[in-house]
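Example for tutorial group B:
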């Protein structure tokens, strides 16, 4: 097999509608350099034809791009050696979206699904020397509107309703956190493959034994042989993470298109989420051998792990559990939802993926949900999740709408699903296939979801059940029987909002207006979405807003809040909890403070409900969302520029291996509990202190506690009246070191008159500081520029409890400090 990249020397131009297509391609006028992989917006930007799309209000003046057709062209050379090969394939990994391809004037391909890679045999169309490759990308927006006219308008949330008919990343149509940029172009690589035989596919649905002592690896290989006797045998070799050969098999071929064999491993090195162990990866190498030596080679990286989605009855609670078990160990899944990290996907490099995913790991997150309105992510994303030990809940690409299910649409979806499953099924990080995002919820909101109907869904007002309950589970069962399939998110029970079965999205806070302090009462078996909006980092705002717009409620800032009524929804959470600053810097801090407090309250309360075997009342909490696709006011923990918001640190503390929690359950009683995320039981000291806002310590006590492994433990209920001028602090000590802390303040914070806490920062060396205070300080935010990486931040500092923080990259940078009511 010989591969040749065909990503260079491309040009593009806008289609001239009243000119014949061949003439339009042939003209030398108006062509500009194009990048592949790329997007038309990026090509126009690079050519100086449009302003920066993310700046100010520029998005408004760039909508014409999505309403036009675009031409792309290149020439490539074919050698005599390449043409002598038995087969030549032209491979497109991603065409966005309605694309027609011509080679040397002959149409070779039409594509209407950006998620389906295309492979075309071109041996009969090419010639030695120069070959012309032409592509027209027709407007996906106009195509969708045409289909909508043909089939009818369907209900949805977010974006133009025609998107439901188009197999394109749905967020391109705009979302409540993202802009409208209708892209077109070759969004993934294109290459030439010359071969006599190739490994078309390798599937290894391995099974780790119940006792984890061995693993069976059945291997199924699909072979495409284009020349007689070009392949004589198939060799399969498994290499341990150390590189040592573990097992191998050789099988003679006599024209078979499919080969099956089996390997076995004793005492396998098991793959774990990073919160529970290591991530050893085996290499499975498949080689085709013929009379001239090696014909083709294929390699997979495998992480061997035993996976179950456990749904059993619970003690003292209705419904069933919903938790993931890895290697016989129940896992509390704390993490985030993931959206595409850019409106223009070719800009997301492997290094940028790594930075994002490392942030999740460093923030004690062990699961990301790849949301159904984006894309099946680049291979680099899943490879890095494998390496870093991040579990992936993988949606299929349907979101917030009642999708059609006519025959042509289902055929396209089937091709998409088969392609996605084949590409991704070997990744140990992926632990669930999920049919869609919130489509059951929108059907319920329209009164068209009837669980009593179990067939002929195409004839109902919720036709896409045929996709979620028949097509997709069938594809998954056929191509990947090793993972569970779940029809949607949220899903379970008579309604998708049932907190006792499956997963739920908790949006009664924010969209429903409930106070964030109610989060603990809004628990479900697995919360796969919840969130609170906040401004991005001030430095990011200054990069997208003109100087004259740098004030709260400016036109630009409101425009960069894409939520319907977003500024109005954010306002009550400020007004009800804090004294609202009038200046931009103060308002940025206030929104981020509220987000931090809200997410802390949610995760703290829900992780408390992870109480051991038979009592897994809540087994997961995934914040909406980790990331942004452009600079925006949103629910993200980290803004588009990879600048960290305070809530990131608060979530990290609540997901730490050891956590202590306080909750005022009545006006005169406080509940105390702790979480031990490690497998082994541990003995610690619990310390409780009451401190006034003036800094006086009113009471202090310590006692030993034993925390059972992998669960929360209720420790005490103390009788103590609520007083505005007092806070209660709990600390867990281990071998003379504080390993967890929590403080309970009277709320709402706006009613508290907080004296100057006299925060003091001591530099211990060029990357360590000690933070202390004479009086309690709430929400202490340390800032020394975006390049400094803090081990912890957004701190509650209590007298007598100095905190040592690592600040990588700090050096001699000045440190800015802010706290609540400063």
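The residue assignment follows.
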């Amino acid at each position: 097999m010989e591969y040749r990249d065909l990503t260079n020397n491309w040009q593009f131009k806008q289609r001239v509608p009243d000119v014949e297509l061949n003439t339009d391609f042939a003209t030398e006028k108006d062509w500009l350099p194009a990048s592949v992989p790329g997007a038309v917006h990026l090509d126009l930007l690079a050519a100086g034809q449009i302003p920066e799309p993310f700046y100010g209000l520029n998005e408004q003046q760039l909508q014409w791009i999505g309403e036009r057709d675009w031409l792309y062209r290149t020439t490539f050379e074919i050698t005599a050696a390449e043409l002598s090969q038995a087969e030549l394939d032209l491979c497109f990994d991603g065409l966005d979206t309605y694309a027609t391809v011509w080679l040397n004037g002959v149409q070779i391909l039409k594509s209407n699904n950006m998620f389906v890679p295309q492979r075309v045999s071109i041996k009969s169309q090419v010639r030695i020397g120069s070959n012309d490759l032409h592509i027209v990308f027709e407007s996906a927006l106009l195509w969708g509107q045409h289909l909508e006219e043909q089939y009818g308008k369907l209900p949805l949330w977010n974006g133009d309703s025609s998107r439901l008919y188009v197999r394109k990343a749905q967020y391109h149509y705009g979302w409540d956190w993202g802009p409208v940029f209708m892209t077109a172009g070759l969004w993934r690589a294109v290459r030439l493959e010359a071969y006599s035989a190739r490994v078309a596919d390798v599937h290894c649905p391995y099974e780790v034994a119940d006792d984890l002592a061995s693993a069976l690896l059945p291997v199924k290989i699909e072979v495409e042989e284009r020349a007689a006797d070009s392949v004589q045998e198939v060799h399969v070799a498994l290499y341990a993470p150390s590189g040592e050969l573990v097992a191998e098999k050789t099988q003679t071929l006599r024209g078979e298109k499919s080969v099956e064999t089996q390997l076995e491993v004793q005492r396998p090195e098991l793959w774990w989420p990073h919160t529970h162990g290591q991530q050893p990866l085996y290499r499975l190498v498949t080689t085709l051998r013929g009379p001239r030596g090696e014909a083709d080679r294929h390699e997979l990286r495998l992480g061997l792990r035993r996976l179950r989605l456990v749904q059993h009855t619970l003690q003292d609670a209705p419904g069933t559990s919903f938790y993931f078990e890895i290697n016989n160990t129940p896992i509390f899944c704390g993490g985030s939802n993931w959206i595409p990290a850019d409106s223009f996907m070719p800009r997301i490099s492997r290094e940028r993926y790594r930075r994002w995913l490392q942030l999740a790991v460093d923030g004690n997150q062990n699961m990301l949900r790849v949301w159904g309105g984006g894309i099946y992510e680049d291979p680099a994303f899943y490879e890095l999740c494998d390496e870093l030990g991040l579990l992936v809940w993988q949606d299929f690409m349907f979101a917030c709408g009642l999708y059609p299910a006519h025959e042509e649409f289902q055929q396209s979806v089937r091709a998409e699903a088969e392609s996605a499953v084949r590409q991704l099924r070997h990744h140990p990080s992926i632990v669930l296939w999920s049919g869609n995002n919130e489509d059951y919820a929108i059907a319920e909101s329209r009164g068209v979801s009837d669980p009593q109907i179990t067939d002929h869904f195409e004839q109902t007002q919720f036709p896409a059940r045929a996709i979620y309950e028949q097509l997709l589970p069938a594809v998954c069962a056929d191509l990947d029987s090793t993972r569970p399939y779940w029809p949607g998110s949220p899903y379970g029970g008579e309604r998708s909002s049932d907190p006792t079965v499956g997963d739920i999205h908790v949006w009664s806070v924010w969209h429903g207006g409930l106070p964030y302090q109610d989060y603990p009462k809004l628990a479900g078996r697995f919360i796969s979405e919840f969130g609170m909006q906040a401004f991005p980092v001030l430095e990011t705002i200054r990069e997208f807003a003109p100087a004259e717009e740098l004030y709260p409620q400016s036109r630009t800032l409101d425009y960069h809040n894409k939520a319907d009524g977003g500024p109005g929804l954010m306002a009550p959470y400020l007004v009800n909890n804090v004294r609202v600053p009038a200046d931009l810097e103060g308002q940025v801090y206030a929104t981020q403070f509220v987000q931090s407090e809200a997410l802390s309250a949610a995760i703290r309360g829900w992780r408390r409900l992870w109480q051991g075997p038979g009592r897994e009342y809540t087994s997961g909490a995934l914040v909406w969302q980790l990331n942004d696709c452009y600079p925006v006011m949103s629910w993200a923990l980290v803004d588009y520029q990879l600048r960290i918001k305070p809530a990131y640190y608060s979530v990290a503390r609540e997901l730490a291996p050891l956590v202590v929690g306080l909750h005022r359950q009545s006006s005169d009683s406080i509940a105390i509990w702790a979480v031990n995320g490690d497998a082994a039981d541990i003995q610690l000291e619990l310390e409780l202190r009451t401190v006034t806002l003036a800094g006086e310590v009113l009471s202090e006590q310590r006692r030993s506690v034993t925390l059972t492994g992998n669960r929360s433990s209720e420790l005490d209920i103390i009788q103590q009246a609520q007083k505005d001028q007092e806070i209660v602090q709990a600390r867990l000590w281990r071998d003379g070191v504080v390993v967890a802390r929590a403080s309970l303040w009277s709320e709402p914070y706006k009613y508290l008159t907080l004296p100057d806490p006299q925060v003091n920062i001591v530099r211990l060396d060029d990357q360590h500081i000690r933070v202390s205070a004479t009086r309690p300080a709430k929400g202490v935010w340390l800032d020394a520029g975006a390049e400094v990486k803090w081990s912890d931040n957004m701190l509650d500092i209590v007298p007598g409890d100095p905190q040592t923080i690592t600040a990588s990259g700090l050096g001699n940078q000045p440190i800015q400090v802010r706290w609540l009511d400063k």
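The chain has 15 helices and 49 strands. Compare this with the pattern of hydrophobic and polar residues in the output above.
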